[in-house]
Amino acid sequence: MDEKLSRAIEKRRDDLVALTRDLIRFPTVNPPGEAYAPCAEFIAQRLKKSGFETQLIRGEGTPGDTDRYPRTNIIARFDGRTHGQTVHFNSHIDVVDAGDGWTVDPFEGVVKDGKVYGRGACDMKGGLAASIIAAEAFLEVYPDFAGSIEISGTVDEESGGFGGVAYLASKGFFSKPRVDHVIIPEPLNKDRICLGHRGVWWAEIETKGEIAHGSMPFLGDCAVRHMGAVLDAFEKELFPALDQKQTRMPVVPEGAKRSTMNINSIHGGQTDDYSGLPSPNVPDSCRLVIDRRFLLEEDITEVKREVTSILDRLQWERPKFHYNIRDIMEVQPLMTERDAPVVTAVAQGIREVFGKEPEYVISPGTYDQKHIARIGLLHDCIAYGPGILDLAHRPDEYVGIEDMVESAKVMALGLKVLLSGSI
User: Fold this and answer.
1) pLDDT tens digit string along 26-67?
2) Quick one: fold of 199-331?
3) Coil, strand, or helix at residue 297?
4) Tens of pLDDT, residues 202-232
5) Which CATH number fits domain 3-197+333-420: 3.40.50.10610, 3.40.630.10, 3.30.565.10, 3.40.50.300?
6) Contact present, 76 and 90 (Cβ < 8 Å)
7) Which one-letter DSSP state was computed for residue 238?
């Protein structure tokens, strides 16, 4: 272990905890996108004091962007004494709703038993704080480095990342020659390197019917019953078939090594009236949203055909069955090669800090690496950060203080390797 770097991070331990607490206290809940601007401005002020040049960039025109809820991102850059490669740490600042079941205030940043509690502590404000501390410690120890360091706090990752990394990637912020290596401090455990993620296809299926009075349903055609036939076919045919598909990708947890599909939501019938009572109508529309996660071995065309073939068959089998299907989002599976520079550098850091080989994993769900690869065409990208993925989005979410300190050391060592050109 580089003792100078280690000491520089250890002396910042209290600062790391305080910074994490400060970040948690911004209730950056998405949806709707609260407190993005003040959180981004706070990060900008912090990094300016460390010598970074900062930009606040609004994802104008992206989903959810309004004057009340602007999609405000922060990008900070520190250029070294001489030209070289650029390492970028990207963290999302948005968090999901706190929900019920907390034993502490979810937006207070409570410190207890060596942990910092709060919504976003694990996913991923602890990782953001660790990356800032790592960069500041590196700048203190190696002020004459060649290259550049960037740190970003971006929005909307929890809802697809379109106002954050996707928007910035479309503007060239995640492409060469500006950036060479990207580390995303998502919570995948401090001794793991996440190489990528499974693919995803979100789609909305609508079954059609004919409206009639609820007391005489025989005069109409119930779209909800048609959707019931769709769900029945999925249960009997599609779900068992998906469960048989396995991948060579090192996906965690074990259950995610199979293809999966989640029924995200279902809506049918007319809206309630002002009294809260339902309308006495036969529903003429029912909409179902599916979340299909697929593997590197699967082709997206076949993934879609598995669903549409069932719908097409029902169209022949059921009288008056009509459907529409609409793509919402599709993302291909990603897996960065183990010998990529950023993987090699972070692996070296893990060996030095923990005295063991890293575990290489694939995330069950997507994160902003998808936009960096798809739009920015930059593939030297991984997720590495403190925290336990299973705690994300749950009550009493926390991040361990020691985990953040050790992860910051790994990140700082990764910087040293990548910017020294010693790979």
Assistant:
1) 999 999 999 999 999 999 999 999 999 999 999 999 999 999
2) Alpha-Beta Plaits (3.30.70)
3) coil
4) 999 999 999 999 999 999 999 999 999 999 9
5) 3.40.630.10
6) no
7) I
